[in-house]
Amino acid sequence: MRIISGAKPSGKLHIGNYLGSIKNWVKLQEDPKNECWFFIADYHSITEDYDPKQKSKEIFDMALDLLALGLGPKKSVLFQQSRINEHANLGWIFNTIVRMSELERMTQYKDKALVQKQNVNVGLFDYPALMAADILIYKAEAVPVGEDQLQHLELTRDIARRFNEKFGKIFPEPKSILTETPRIMSLTDPLKKMSKSGGEKSYIALSDSPEIIREKIKIAVSDAGGKDKRDGGDNLLSIFNAFTQTKEEKTEYLSYKKDHEAGKLRYAGLKPRLAELIADYFADYRKKHIEFSKNPDYVKKVLAEGAEKALAIAEKTLKEVKQKIGLII
Ligand code: AMP
C-alpha cells in the first residue's frame, strides 16, 4: 500500500501532531508491504502568518525532528513539498475541478480565517486543492492524519472521483488512517484542539525538556475547575494511555481511569506521573535529535535524495494527467 502524509513546518512539533498522526507514520513504515512517503508541507505553512527569516530553519528543524523519531531514509521517503513543482501544478488543475461551495464548507478554513483575520489569503482558502494534489500526485491509497484533516481527505476523494469520471480513471480514492487518539486537546483550554496557535503553555513540544513538560502538565486545566472543564481530565487521561508502553503503566492508567469515573482522581498524583511518562517516551528522540543536529549535511542529503525519488513519480503522474485533459499536443 502506498502511504503519504505531511506536516507543516510552523513552530515546533507537539504531542498532538505526534499522537494524532506521526505515531502512525512510524508504525506504518515498519510494515514492508507499505511504501511510505512523508513530506514537510512548507507550501501549506506559508498560508499562515510567518516570518520568512525563520522559515528555512523551521523546515530544517522539522526534518531533524522526523529523523530523530526514526522516520526515513531506510524505511520511508522524506522530502520537502515545495521542491516538487508538480504538487502546485496538479493543485492548479484541481482548482478547475473543485467548487467554491465545497471549499467554503471546510471547517479548517473557517477556523483559521477567524484566527488570522488580517491575512485570509487565497492559499488558505485553496489549501484542500493543494492537499488533494499532494496525495494524488503519488496515487497514494492511504493517508495517516489527525481528525482535523478528515474533511479535507473526503474532498480529496471527491476530487479523485470527479476527475476519474470526467477524464478517465487514474486516481485511487485514498482512505484515512487514524490513531486511537485522533484529536488531542489543548492543555490550557480543553475545549479546543491542541495547536501551536494556542500559545506555549497549551501544548507540549516533542523537544520540551522533562522540566518544562512537568511545568506545563502541572498547570494543565483538569476537571477540578467545574463542569465546563470536564474535558481536561479526559484529555490528560487519554494522553496518559497513549504514552503507556509497559503492562504496569497500562494497569496504572486503568486505575487512574477508574478513580476518574468515580470522581475521586487526585491530579496531584496523576500529573507528575504523566509528565514523567511523556519525558521518558521521548528520551530516545531527544538523544537522536542532538546527534542529527551535529550533522546538518546528512539531514540535507536525506531531503535531496527524497526529492529525487518524489520527483520521478510526480513528473510521471502530471504527464498522465495532462494527457487525459488534453494539454499535450
Ligand atoms: P499540521 O500541524 O497541520 O501540519 O499537522 C500535522 C498532523 O498532525 C496532521 O495529520 C494533523 O491532523 C495532526 N494534528 C494536528 N493537531 C492535532 C491534534 N491536536 N490532535 C490530533 N492530531 C493533530
From TrEMBL:
Chain positions recorded as L-tryptophan binding sites: 134
Position of sequence motif 'KMSKS' region: 193-197
Subcellular location: Cytoplasm
Biological processes annotated in GO: tryptophanyl-tRNA aminoacylation
Any matching Pfam family: tRNA-synt_1b
EC number: 6.1.1.2
Binding site for ATP: 8-10, 16-17, 146-148, 184, 193-197
Motif 'HIGH' region mapped to chain: 9-17
Keywords: Aminoacyl-tRNA synthetase, ATP-binding, Cytoplasm, Ligase, Nucleotide-binding, Protein biosynthesis
Cellular compartments per GO CC: cytoplasm
Gene Ontology terms, MF aspect: ATP binding; tryptophan-tRNA ligase activity
Catalytic reaction annotation: tRNA(Trp) + L-tryptophan + ATP = L-tryptophyl-tRNA(Trp) + AMP + diphosphate + H(+)
Primary location recorded for the protein, binned into one broad class: cytoplasm
Signal peptide: none
Superkingdom of source: Bacteria
Keyword NADP found: no
InterPro entries tied to this protein: aa-tRNA-synth_I_CS, aa-tRNA-synth_Ic, Rossmann-like_a/b/a_fold, Trp-tRNA-ligase, Trp-tRNA-ligase_bac-type, Trp-tRNA_synthetase
Subunit structure: Homodimer.
Family statement drawn from the similarity comment of this UniProt entry: Belongs to the class-I aminoacyl-tRNA synthetase family.
Known role: Catalyzes the attachment of tryptophan to tRNA(Trp).
HAMAP family with a match to the protein in the record: Trp_tRNA_synth_B (MF_00140_B)
Name this polypeptide is given: Tryptophan--tRNA ligase
Originating organism: Candidatus Azambacteria bacterium GW2011_GWB1_42_17
Higher taxonomy: Bacteria, Candidatus Azamiibacteriota
